[in-house]
């Protein structure tokens, strides 16, 4: 049986709500990092466009390669939709080879460096799926610890975020990601984020 279909314990629910679904104060950043997806694309694009209209980023990188089900890369689909909704094409950097979160970051950093200079970027907003949550900035922190990181999560579930455990599919996705955290830390794929006490500021 798929372990992700298990019923989470009360302790797991509390830990995930407190430590995985991190709400970071949002303020204007130098860069929006849009992690590619095949699920909830419309929600991702909506949020990216809203952040642009509200003045929350100067540049953005959209990262995601070709995955099963389409001949187009995730980057092409998402970036094209953002441009169609009014985000200027010339502020969008593109990475179209990544097939996982680690590759999103590893393949994107040289592109960001060549276009903008990593040293010129001081703050990044990570935009991705609710269930992956903290793993986005943890992956970025492993490879780019110097920048300030903020997290924005989106999904199409009607269930309120804190009640994820009451929806079978939402719960399965959440537990699947939560179960990756400690093994990935042990393997050096991700780094602890936020730093201890950072959430208390």
TrEMBL record:
Tree of life domain: Bacteria
Listed InterPro entries: Cell_Envelope_Assoc (IPR051599), DUF218 (IPR003848), Rossmann-like_a/b/a_fold (IPR014729)
Segments forming a coiled coil: none
Domain DUF218, chain residue ranges per copy: 31-178
GO biological process, one term: Gram-negative-bacterium-type cell wall biogenesis
Pfam family for this entry, one: DUF218
Gene Ontology CC annotations of this record: plasma membrane
Entry-linked PANTHER family: ENVELOPE BIOGENESIS FACTOR ELYC, INNER MEMBRANE PROTEIN, PROBABLE PERMEASE
Protein name (database record): YdcF family protein
Lineage, top ranks: Bacteria, Pseudomonadati, Pseudomonadota, Alphaproteobacteria, Hyphomicrobiales
